[in-house]
Write a structure and sequence with these properties.
Strand order of the largest sheet: 1-10-5-12-2-14-15
Largest sheet: 7 strands, mixed
Order of helices and strands: HEHHHEEEEEEEEEEEEEEH
Shape: globular
Distance between the termini: 57 Å
Number of strands: 15
Helix content: 25-40%
Length: 282
């Protein structure tokens, strides 16, 4: 049975985003928050204050996060958009502390991913309320014609994105949609979807988990052999080295391997993007 209607799929294809959907019941949500609490105790600090490696690829480090990325309520919706053979190739904590200036400038996820074709979809799961006041995501419709835009990695202060990337072209912000989510719900956005988020002005932490799914036929465009986790169906293409979900918390060897491959690809793709959009010289 399909999780999405034909109209919902058409809306996603046209706009590049779709929301909201229920993911977690209250017990599941509290279990995730308990897992995050254990993680921050292990780190000895909140995730936003830790090295970037500890914000990224948590599905390779903690069983509870690996369970989250394989949640059937999420995968059923994702399958209706990208098919039955699904990999997760990266995941990220997006945490804004209460009353914090942390933000994200207008950007597209695809910019430094280096994946082809552009079929990646992000499920953004709210573990706490992601209201307008708390700095939820804002999105712009692609109007049926998504394209890669020019970005600059500006290392913006207080940016939640590692490179502080921002779109370097003029964009029309009219019609921006605010994707507010209740705790336990999730949204979907396409890899070319233009989006941003404002600072958290609320009195609570805004805790989100960004889960990046791709159909198994998608391949990396760079020289780095990356790792991924199969979460549904089969991988008949072999573009990634597959790893099993962790069975114990804080398996740092596995996580280090997955993270280092991802980071090296990221560096390659930043340079590739800059060459792609470099001004022509005569």
């Amino acid at each position: 049975m399909k999780a999405l209607t034909a109209a919902q799929v058409a809306s996603y294809r046209h706009d590049g985003f779709l929301f909201p959907f229920p993911a977690l019941d209250e017990g599941e949500r509290l279990a995730c928050l308990a897992g995050l609490e254990r993680y921050e105790r292990w780190l000895g600090m909140p995730v936003p204050e830790a090295e970037n490696r500890w914000r990224t690829q948590p599905h390779a480090l903690m069983p509870w996060y690996a369970d989250l990325v394989r949640h059937p309520r999420i995968l059923d919706v994702v399958e209706d958009l990208i098919g039955p053979d699904i990999l997760i190739w990266t995941g990220t904590f997006f945490i804004k502390e209460a009353q914090s200036p942390t933000f994200a400038a207008w950007h597209q996820d695809s910019t430094y991913f280096g994946l082809e074709p552009d079929e990646q979809v992000t499920a953004w799961v709210a573990l706490t309320d992601a209201s307008r006041e708390a700095g939820c995501m804002e999105v712009l419709s692609a109007h049926g014609a998504p394209r890669q835009m020019h970005h600059r990695a500006l290392r913006l202060e207080n940016s939640i994105n590692r490179a502080g990337q921002t779109i370097a072209e003029s964009i029309d912000e009219r019609g921006a949609v605010t994707m507010q989510l209740d705790a336990g719900w999730f949204s979907l956005h396409h890899t070319l979807c233009v989006h941003r988020s404002a600072p958290n002005r609320a009195a609570h932490r805004r805790i989100g988990c960004g889960i990046n799914y791709i159909p198994a036929h998608v391949r990396p465009t760079g020289p780095v052999r990356m790792a991924a986790m199969l979460v549904r169906g089969d991988d008949r293409w072999g573009h990634f080295d597959l790893f099993d979900p962790p069975t114990v918390e804080f398996d740092t060897a596995r996580h280090a391997d997955v993270f280092e491959r991802y980071s090296e690809n990221y560096r390659v793709q930043v340079e590739r993007h800059e060459r792609q959009f470099a001004p022509e010289r005569t």
